[in-house]
């Protein structure tokens, strides 16, 4: 068991926690990052499965995600374009399969016009409301007390159009049924990506991938911190208890309830592998996991309530690797959409300069419930049949097949990120980033730009670090706290 004294203890070594750690070290503050898993990366995880390198978690980068792209450059990581030559496939509600090019699905003239209308409406709401403070807008309550499903049907009588537009945000992003979250939450999702049109355009939102895998972002930061005497990253170290001073005075210098007490070292994080006493704590875990930590004293009522309204969605990310990207020979780019198929979206996910071909498919929310009700063989059969429905029978026989199952991961419990239940965003959103005493909150789930994405995790990591640096009392800011504060307390 390690005992450490640090300026900041960070709970969670995902992209947000490690970005915060990196920024805090740049500002001269000492850090310890406690990570529950035996690896860094959180919801980014690049792994070798049966000889194939797979992105089990987050992978794509879009042009608006400038915080992430800047970080990739700083870390010496390069990107490559998603393959997109050839036709896409759309499967209509009646099962008709159509090949098409361009952005609009091959639907009837009426459905296309309705989809165009809904996209324009969502673009305009996203531009008007924005991602920073959707809860502060005059329309926030009105939009937050209606489900996205019902809001869409209030705008259009075309069921296919409503289902297709719903798919982009419900199955495609929040991975919850469109009846379970609000129109305001959908507007936030769109605004966080710049516009709804950006989300609809797979060539934009799924533009690039990191050569060698997204998990390298956190692995490289952890490698930097490993040779830094003012930083520690402790794995296999789930934080069970966080003690903080209820009488915290907001300066990081006072408080009496912490273990060390004096000098502002008033927060103590107790994990399985380390006890860290610090001046500030960052909870860099998704909000659905806050309650896995025992806060002593308990968090205030507002946080107790708010955290019960944020939950993760559910999606199965299916990876199917083939000897060749056979669909390309057939003039297909590998992209397919259907609001009614078991696999709702499929893309060519072939690795950089890999002769083999990889498809990635997504099965979301209630369809994922159904898929998980099947035994593993039956589930694989149904899923590969669904892939074949888009790209042909060769899809039935992958040489490597793997299902990312984040719902079973104790330290995540779903995918991709959390969202509020109906009515929660306008009710609680303004308080989600408010520190509680010396405890700050940082994760992609709380981001404005880049919400739900690695980019948002990076943005919040930077923002949280900047807030802590700004909160430094003058005397603390002037000292050089690295090695001095890094001493063991016992
Ligand atoms: C299947 C999937 C696909 C995705 N696709 C994309 C994509 O293509 N592009 C994109 O940008 N984003 C994507 N995302 C989302 C992206 O991965 C996340 O937004 C991002 O990883 C969030 O980073 P974070 O640091 O906020 O949280 P996390 O990555 O979840 O990191 C939190 C860390 O905290 C740790 N932890 C939790 N509780 C404790 C505790 N009590 N003590 C210590 N440690 C704890 C966890 O183990 C974890 O390592 C995807 C996610 C998934 C799951």
TrEMBL record:
GO molecular function: oxidoreductase activity
SUPFAM superfamilies assigned to the protein according to its UniProt record, in alphabetical order: FAD-linked reductases, C-terminal domain, FAD/NAD(P)-binding domain
Source species, domain of life: Bacteria
Transport found in the keyword field: no
InterPro entries: Amino_oxidase, FAD/NAD-bd_sf, Flavin_amine_oxidase, Flavin_MAO
Claim: Transmembrane is one of the keywords in the record: no
Known cofactor(s): FAD
Keyword annotations from UniProtKB, A to Z: Oxidoreductase
Binding site for substrate: 362
Residues covered by the Amine oxidase domain: 16-468
Family stated for the protein in its record: Belongs to the flavin monoamine oxidase family.
Protein name in the entry: FAD-dependent oxidoreductase
Source species: Arthrobacter terrae
